[in-house]
């Protein structure tokens, strides 16, 4: 084993009332999959929370409040180990016109369809959510997200 540690990511479990925001991802030459907002920590990000706020703005055009650290997941990739810092938060504003991530200019990034799912484990186990470790965490904790986030 071994390989290098990859750049850490931040993942946002964003609650909109009693729903969780997910992306249904259609990417060329890849099976359909689902993900949550988030992305790599960039050098200019002062903190992990800064990464989270930047990513939800880039990917959703959203602002969020009450950011709560939930868990840290370590995922094995062919290139090495990847750490995902998972935060819970509540949606404050959402304006798709404000989306500004590089992924929207590049057709190779495919389509991100925003879906709001009820807070039930079967909603997660029924879909191919990546990374798998996050799907396992969510299936176990999704009903408790409102109290975990506060």
UniProtKB/TrEMBL annotation:
Pfam families: NUDIX. It comes from Thermopolyspora flexuosa. Belongs to the Nudix hydrolase family. PANTHER family: ADP-RIBOSE PYROPHOSPHATASE (PTHR43736), DIHYDRONEOPTERIN TRIPHOSPHATE DIPHOSPHATASE (PTHR43736:SF1). This is ADP-ribose pyrophosphatase YjhB (NUDIX family). Residues 5-142 form the Nudix hydrolase domain. InterPro entries: NUDIX_hydrolase-like_dom_sf, NUDIX_hydrolase_dom.
């Amino acid at each position: 084993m071994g390989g290098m540690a990859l750049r850490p990511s931040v993942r946002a479990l964003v609650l909109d009332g009693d729903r969780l925001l997910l992306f249904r991802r259609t990417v060329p030459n890849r099976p359909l999959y689902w993900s949550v907002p988030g992305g790599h920590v960039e050098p200019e990000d002062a903190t992990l929370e800064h990464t989270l706020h930047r990513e939800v703005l880039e990917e959703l055009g959203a602002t969020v409040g009450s950011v709560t650290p939930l868990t840290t997941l370590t995922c094995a990739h062919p290139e090495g180990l990847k750490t995902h810092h998972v935060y819970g938060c509540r949606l404050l504003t959402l304006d798709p016109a404000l989306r500004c991530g590089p992924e929207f200019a590049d057709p190779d990034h495919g389509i991100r369809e925003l879906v709001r799912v009820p807070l039930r484990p079967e909603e997660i186990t029924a879909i191919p959510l990546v990374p798998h470790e996050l799907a396992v965490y969510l299936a176990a904790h999704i009903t408790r997200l409102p109290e975990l986030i506060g």
